[in-house]
Amino acid sequence: MTSDDPYDHLVQDLPQDESEPEDLPPALGGLEGEALQHFREDWRQLGTGQRADLVARLRKEAQENLALDFAAVCAIASEDSDPAVRTQAFQLAGEDASPGLFELCLRGAADDPDPEARIAATEALGAFTLEAQSSGWPDQLQDRAQRALLANLHSERSPLGLRRAALLALAYLTTTESEAEIRNAYLDPSLHLAALEAMGRNCQETWLPYLESELESDDDVVRLEAVLACLEMEAERLVPSLIERLDDPTEAVRLAAIHALGTIGGDEAESALREAERNADPSERAAFREARTEAYSRDDFFGLRELPDGEQE
After folding, report:
1. Residue 288, domain member (yes or no)
2. How many Å apart are CA 62 and CA 47, to the nearest integer?
């Protein structure tokens, strides 16, 4: 944004401490009443690039401080005439995931005329399906999200990016429909990688044999996606297969396996990380160290204990 951006100082002055949301400048956070009307008027005076940049910057602030509430800005930006602004608005809505933005994202996923904005709205629905599943939203709301995602997944007019976004957002729901769609996508070459990612998001034991098999794939991209799904699953059963990937010929796969083993933790994972670190390339030793620290501390309150060999966390 230019130096005369009327909201530049407000973005810069946003509080960094999540514990102090009351310090949020009212012109951007929790807009309502007269402040909301003033913002609408000022919004119309901004150029397209300024509007998109403002929403992008608010998204960054929302990532860093979960207490910030930009729902009103999302609502205004989602109705913008410029698709780039609407795309940013849906992405900001996905960071917020407050119930009040659910309808906004549903409409965008179903009706936005711009492909990128529609994908962004569909991806944002993933934040809502995750919240719905973890917080026990009413079945009727979960059903509405599922219907919208299934429509995008099956429409003949949906580009591949939209179908992929719909599958991944759907994967957070542990429903028979979600499981069936992941299985179908697994058999579809164009969605095979997305299906592996969806398995990780779905976190059901039924996917463990699939991931164990894909960890042996000849395709390094497939192996990497499988390792990342294992990281999401955090299932101890996957540890032996992940240990084998510590010797993977592809660096990205090795690093992902190191991280996954640290995330899963347990004696077997920790021991394997320690053994592999002894012969590791110097460039990877920091990753081993970080993973071992995480693996060793998972079962301890705040991880405050002494590591083997006198190493301290």
Report:
1. yes
2. 23
